[in-house]
């Protein structure tokens, strides 16, 4: 199979996008050498057949999602690309160290803002940015999270712009999703390309459920006796990520429950079972704060459990992640992460933040309004690729409408330059072409330490020139391989297939 879209690759190189497979002179990076030979020896028809087989497997196991608010909001597959993304262990080591540092700082920050608020007193972060944040939960003030851990599961979105240049795009610590796709992508790749997989020493991801279970067990409340009982709390089968909820409960070997399956008595949470009521010690919740407990948050919630917050405040149940972690997802808070890391750890951030303008600051707002055509503007509480403007790809009319919106409500927006996200080879019916990618590694924090699964979920923007990788916006996924450096130490760069295409 040849890399037929050589013009696309040339254009991306001219735009200074880092191509993870191809060198500037057209050679193939050693880490992708075996992938390049596999592609050269594999007919396009066979790749297409394997892709169709992958889609069939995903449909059979039910790995689908829904997009709310669309006329056609039925369940759909996230497109899967058959060409894996490959990174060296040495590259991953830098990412891993940075992720551990970042999540440690996030946990210290959350523990602080709900207790002594030392970072606010030190004026390292504006008080109103925290205290007036819609995700700041006053119900958590003075509440000590079990083992002082607020963020048990984090999905940190990272982009690459060069050989050793990694940036954190955003932090996802409320109810981060996507791990089921990481695990299923690996299983599918092992089934459809076993020979290629065997040629690489790929770090395993299949131990993620065991690592997650160990982390959740380690944070059970002191009142728990014996083996802690763990449950996954889902909004129900109509939720867009319901497949993942049921998948994780099955992999963990724990009960999948809805709010109606739980009740609270004497500040202790129980779940209804066929053998009667059973105490629950740890709840891996996939429900947003607003809907968790109708006695405390939204009174109209029918998917939460009344009294859950009372049991949590009494220290009788652990919620993973803790209530109130959403403040750390805020994109304005994100801009202070280098300061947060320095304040709590006394260290310089290993992973860089994307340079960001806070539109709440008058000078920054003026700059953003004057340069909308070159910037990406995001809602501070937005997610999923919604509520944002990609200036270079927007029309003049779209920019004018967004400028008016921005001028009316600047506090709720930040702006960033359009980073040249790295590209990876991606298979299409017309051939293979580079597409922009990001990476969501998953970081687990328990009383026994921090664990990072080697790899994560690579999301790919399937639309040409698009920088939006979200599945709700037409993005797809790839398997992510972390491989040992020594396999490629003596491998010289190969001639690019694009040169003969």
TrEMBL record:
Stored SUPFAM superfamilies: Glutathione synthetase ATP-binding domain-like (SSF56059)
Chain ranges of the Circularly permuted ATP-grasp type domain: 84-461
Alphabetical list of InterPro entries matching this protein: ATP-dep_Glu-Cys_Ligase-2 (IPR051680), CP_ATPgrasp_2 (IPR025841), UCP005522 (IPR016450)
Stated name of the protein: Circularly permuted type 2 ATP-grasp protein
């Amino acid at each position: 199979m040849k890399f037929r879209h050589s013009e696309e690759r040339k254009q991306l190189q001219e735009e200074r996008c880092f191509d993870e497979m191809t060198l500037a002179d057209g050679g193939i990076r050693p880490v992708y050498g075996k992938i390049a030979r596999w592609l050269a020896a594999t007919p396009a028809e066979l790749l297409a057949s394997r892709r169709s087989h992958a889609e069939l497997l995903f449909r059979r196991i039910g790995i689908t999602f829904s997009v709310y608010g669309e006329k056609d909001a039925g369940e759909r597959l996230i497109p899967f690309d058959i060409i894996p993304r490959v990174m060296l262990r040495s590259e991953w080591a830098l990412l891993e160290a940075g992720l551990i540092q970042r999540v440690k700082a996030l946990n210290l920050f959350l523990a602080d803002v709900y207790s002594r608020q030392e970072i606010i007193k030190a004026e390292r972060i504006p008080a109103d940015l925290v205290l007036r944040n819609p995700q700041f939960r006053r119900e958590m003030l003075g509440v000590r999270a079990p083992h002082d851990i607020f963020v048990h599961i984090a999905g940190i979105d990272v982009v690459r712009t060069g050989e050793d240049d990694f940036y954190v795009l955003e932090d996802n610590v409320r109810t981060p999703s996507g791990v089921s796709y990481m695990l299923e992508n690996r299983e599918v790749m092992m089934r459809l390309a076993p020979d290629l997989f065997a040629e690489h020493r790929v770090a395993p991801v299949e131990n993620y459920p065991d690592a997650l279970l160990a982390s959740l067990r380690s944070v059970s409340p002191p009142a728990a006796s014996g083996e802690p009982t763990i449950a996954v709390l889902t909004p129900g089968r109509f939720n867009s990520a319901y497949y993942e909820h049921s998948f994780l409960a099955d992999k963990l070997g724990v009960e999948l429950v809805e709010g109606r399956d739980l009740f609270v008595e004497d500040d202790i949470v129980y779940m209804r079972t066929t053998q009667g009521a059973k105490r629950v010690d740890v709840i891996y919740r996939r429900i947003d704060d607003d809907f968790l407990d109708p006695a405390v948050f939204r009174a109209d919630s029918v998917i939460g459990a009344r009294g859950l917050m009372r049991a949590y405040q009494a220290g009788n149940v652990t919620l993973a992640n803790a209530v109130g972690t959403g403040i750390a997802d805020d994109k304005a808070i994100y801009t202070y992460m280098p300061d947060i890391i320095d304040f709590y750890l006394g260290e310089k951030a290993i992973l860089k933040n994307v340079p960001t303008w806070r539109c709440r600051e008058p000078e920054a707002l003026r700059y953003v309004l004057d340069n909308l055509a070159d910037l990406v503007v995001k809602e501070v509480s937005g997610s999923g690729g919604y509520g944002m403007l990609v200036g270079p790809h927007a029309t003049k009319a779209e920019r004018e409408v967004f400028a008016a919106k921005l001028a009316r409500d600047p506090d709720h927006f930040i702006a960033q330059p359009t980073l040249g996200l790295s590209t990876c080879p991606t298979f299409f019916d017309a051939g293979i072409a580079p597409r922009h990618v990001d990476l969501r590694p998953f970081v687990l924090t328990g009383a026994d330490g921090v664990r990072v699964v080697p790899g994560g979920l690579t999301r790919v923007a399937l639309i040409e020139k698009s920088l939006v990788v979200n599945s709700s916006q037409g993005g797809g996924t790839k398997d992510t391989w972390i491989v040992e450096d020594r396999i490629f130490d003596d491998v010289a760069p190969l001639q690019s297939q694009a040169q003969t295409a």
